[in-house]
Description:
The structure is a homodimer.
Chain A: H1 2-10, H2 33-36, H3 45-59, E1 70-71, H4 86-96, H5 105-111, H6 116-129, H7 143-156, E2 167-170, H8 172-184, E3 190-196, H9 201-208, E4 212-217, H10 228-240, E5 244-251, H11 263-276, E6 279-283, H12 299-309, E7 319-324, E8 338-343, H13 347-359, H14 365-375, H15 385-412, E9 416-417, E10 426-427, E11 430-431, H16 435-444, H17 448-460, E12 462-463, E13 465-466, E14 477-482, H18 489-505
Parallel strand pairs in A: 1-12, 3-4, 3-5, 5-6, 6-7
Antiparallel strand pairs in A: 2-8, 7-8, 9-11, 10-14, 11-14, 13-14
Helix pairs in contact in A: 4-6, 4-14, 7-14, 8-9, 10-11, 11-12, 17-18
Amino acid sequence: xxxxxxxxxxxxxxxxxxxxxxxxxxxxxxxNASVTKAEYAVRGAIPTRADELKEELKRSxxxxxxxxxxxxxxxxxxxxxxxPLTFTRQVLSILEYPVILKVDxxxxxxxxxxxxxxxxxxxxxxDDIGGSVGAYSHSQGVxxxxxxxxxxxxxxxxxxxxxxxxIYLTTGASAAATSLLSLLCKDSxxxxxxxxxxxxLYTASASLYNAQVxxxxxxxxxxxxxxSDEIERVVLDALKKGIKPSVLIVINPGNPTGAVLSESTIAxxxxxxxxxxxxxxxxxxYQENVFGDVKFHSMKKILRKLQNLYPGKFDNVQLxxxxxxxxxxxxxxxxxxxxxxxxxxxxxxxDALFKLMSISICSVVTGQAVVDLMVKPPQPGDESYDQxxxxxxxxxxxxxxxxxxxxxxxxELEGIKCQKPQGAMYLFPKLVLPEKALRxxxxxxIEPDVLYxxxxxxxxxxxxxxxxxxxxxxxxxxxxxxxLPPGTQWIQDWRGFHQEFFDKYRD
Amino acid sequence: xxxxxxxxxxxxxxxxxxxxxxxxxxxxxxxNASVTKAEYAVRGAIPTRADELKEELKRSxxxxxxxxxxxxxxxxxxxxxxxPLTFTRQVLSILEYPVILKVDxxxxxxxxxxxxxxxxxxxxxxDDIGGSVGAYSHSQGVxxxxxxxxxxxxxxxxxxxxxxxxIYLTTGASAAATSLLSLLCKDSxxxxxxxxxxxxLYTASASLYNAQVxxxxxxxxxxxxxxSDEIERVVLDALKKGIKPSVLIVINPGNPTGAVLSESTIAxxxxxxxxxxxxxxxxxxYQENVFGDVKFHSMKKILRKLQNLYPGKFDNVQLxxxxxxxxxxxxxxxxxxxxxxxxxxxxxxxDALFKLMSISICSVVTGQAVVDLMVKPPQPGDESYDQxxxxxxxxxxxxxxxxxxxxxxxxELEGIKCQKPQGAMYLFPKLVLPEKALRxxxxxxIEPDVLYxxxxxxxxxxxxxxxxxxxxxxxxxxxxxxxLPPGTQWIQDWRGFHQEFFDKYRD
Lengths: 507, 507
């Protein structure tokens, strides 16, 4: 058979046809430079090295000074200790296989697999979706789910109404941010105001869409606060240079800093947006991850309040808020879901955004369903309510406990200083490294925090991301770690490593 | 409470702070022109009008001359008649809720919900995934699933080995294509060779990434065949104009044409790629959708054969093949899954592609699992095998029956001519419209096929896409319809409409 085919193929070409010099292969310089120059440290060199070490441990479990890799480099809760919420997964299981709804109810109940409210919610979602999660949905997302999201926002923001037509369900917040930026980055004179330090998705997107990064620095000494004076300074500076400050990115709660914005800070950001006509993208994916008496305030809520307080002054503000199922109590990273709420955009811009989203047809429908479950958890009186609450409480307590332990450990050690955890899943302590370590990193031609994080990985298996991957004030060095890995042994290991590192490099 | 907050906010600004003139809002001209000029007819004006009519029918079911909208505009099988394969959904249901695996086996078996091989496959996938579909996977996709894909390709291509490191699992084929094109479109002198007619994702992407579209025309009279002479003519023409023909898109089986490429045609395409150093993207998402004795040949298989036959001549060819879970027997559009296999790319290019994919972290993990299920269905001897085969046969037969009925209907009517269905999910008949219809469309300033498709929608509720959305030879007009809508009444309705339309406009 193969022989016949090859004979067939042989007859396709004459000798003359084949008398050509094969062309050269692609090289890096043939690629889109915007893509090749983009950087994304969260899955960069150190996590890649961690993957190699993981493979090495699989081949030979005692070849390294540690037994496993602790992935503290990425907010991926279910890779680690965090269990999915039972209610969420019961509903998803039924959505995937609606035959379950047709089984004899008593027989099904005897297995104790699915709660009544899970069956009910699955039925409602299937009705909204149109029967099957395997069909493409509306490009903006299933209308019924967008209604649930709008109801949630209305309640969260103290009654300020939200509308399903302003909601776009997305394949996670990364896809949401890149869609918005691809639309809003007009040309190389477009300025993107980005917090530094900052989750590198935004610098990578700025590179992909050829925009100018306009960094505004967060104030580490004031718990990584956002200073509107600093933002305005950057805006004015850009305008002087002929760059149009078009988009302002806010991450609240912060990544990697964990800082949570106050109402007055948000109000001041809205003022800058109103004054200079800057579109705000408010990345609020960690809105459920706030600790103690810290309170999350949405940009939308404060904007609406200002619009009510000062008629006409803030009506021009254009805001896109992002949320995600990957963080908070869901931690459903792999399910890829999220939403954008837009406020104040004209019909032209809405149409363009819709068209852009329709090119990728729709976001994953099960991910859309998880958004519904995130914003509308079981309520008191529902069969799943108690278990759901307990599961949430456990997640919250474990995260808080580990965050505090890490924070205290860092602050007990020499040469490392950490701000108090307020929110998100990360700590971003500052490293004050000895001169000898700085010289060594210079010799190796790497950043000093890369030296530290590499040594940490190679000695303990703890995988983190150097602060240079997020941006930091020149001459300062940091490390970003999640506080997701289970147990406390790794924190002790880190302590041991840190002391050895300082002993080695102490001046 | 709200009052206190508003008071707080009131104290934030001084009168001087508020003494500013609010800036103007964004207009279309402030957006990225590459996005605003992109077009995507599959969810364009006519489908949008269909959505409006659907809403109107909901409000008042007898206000229109039809009772429902027939969505023949998009290959969305599960929106219509096609049922998901039972085995797929059983496995997915377990993946979402692995507690099912811990239920007493006998008790579970009494419900007859999950087959033994479904339980086994789910366990294997969970092991490969690392325990939870809610965790981010490796950016290239779960290694074990990539191995299954590589095994499938190896077998499909007659033993030519495929490797998991060459596989990238993606959020559907659209995301795969746009990722590849964003990397390969270097600048405005990059030429994209695109078949005309063509699924408009590619023209839209060319616009998004500022590439030059280099159209090559398919030969309608020869069953929409792809002529390598035509491609080479376009290549030479582009070179003369200083445009670098960098990427050649092939859609096999074709969308919207349904044409399936022969081995010799594929070989000739490989020759052009080798001679001119053009990277080939082979969109093979309809590879399961071929009818009768038509056989699908992958670009990769033919390339490998040529490399064996003519050492040194074809080794430089760089190929990316796309597949998807949205079409074929799965039809799992809403689950968003697919893969890219790359061949011949240097390490630099691979690294850049990996980085690009890591910026969006990973594709949806359940979608990755569906890829596994697509390429490795139940085998003879497995509990699910018989049912699975029957379900596939039913899908195949129903599609073929409707395709043939539509084809015959079109060819019985005046002024419409259709090529014989070979594959994919579409027919793309040519409309030979009367002069009066052409004049009417001129008067309305719309394309003649838009006039036809709009009238079809408004009279019958049948939603199609005009040929102008896919590109067509100047002066020819077409309509693309899927053959997915259930039943045959709609085909009779279309017949009736067509006759009336011609009666109305007959010269």
